[in-house]
Amino acid sequence: MKQVYISQHPLVQHKLTVLRSVDTDHRSFRELVRELALLLCYEATQDLSLSPQQVTTPMGKAEGFKTEDTIGLVPVLRAGLGLVDGVMELLPSVQVWHIGLYRDEETLRPVEYYNKLPTEPTVNVCLVLDPMLATGGSAVATVDILKKWGVKRIKYLGLIAAPEGVERLSTAHPDVPIHVAAVDEKLNEVGFIVPGLGDAGDRQFGT
Length: 207
Ligand code: PRP
Hints:
The protein is α/β, with parallel strands linked by helices and 207 residues long. The protein has 6 helices and 15 strands. It is globular. 32% of the residues lie in helices and 30% in strands. The chain has one domain: Rossmann fold, CATH 3.40.50.2020. Bound molecules: 1-O-pyrophosphono-5-O-phosphono-alpha-D-ribofuranose (PRP). 1-O-pyrophosphono-5-O-phosphono-alpha-D-ribofuranose (PRP) is lined by residues 76-79, 102-103, 108, 110, 130-139, 165, 191, 200-201.
């Protein structure tokens, strides 16, 4: 079963619209990516595990909770880097495990170039961070790597998806929820999301 969550939050939709604009400069683009990551992370983490925790307030004891999960962020280099800071504002104690993949411009297939995961998994939940889910090849390859590493719960957090990418990721990994700000119309003939926002890596890093 597909698990696709498109944020309906007004702030997400407003910021996404500014992000898409050809008139948005690199600095504003990076700031918007950070803010969108924070907002989407808030929605994507609503089912984290809690355990009871008592706390002492200035007035006495209160029953509360603490989060139980050990969370790993997995930004896909390089465009995923821009999502890390916003997510870490909400989850300051997470581990960050970078995965380097680039999309071969002709075949559109992902090519792995960086992976320093240790042998044994050190987290039980992973958030894959990548702004664009286009053909879905990079996302599927990243989830493949994380499952092989032994991670039990994996979520995908991105900004814009193409229907083709959603289909591919949810077919290959139906257990992985997809959290995005929008699912756009289609992929064009060179694998870019339309209308999308252009190349998320280039727009963040001025290349
Ligand atoms: C982009 C994007 C994803 C991938 C999506 O990265 O950030 O990682 O393409 O495409 P897919 O769903 O068809 O695999 P790109 O290869 O341009 O590398 P970059 O982040 O280094 O710019």
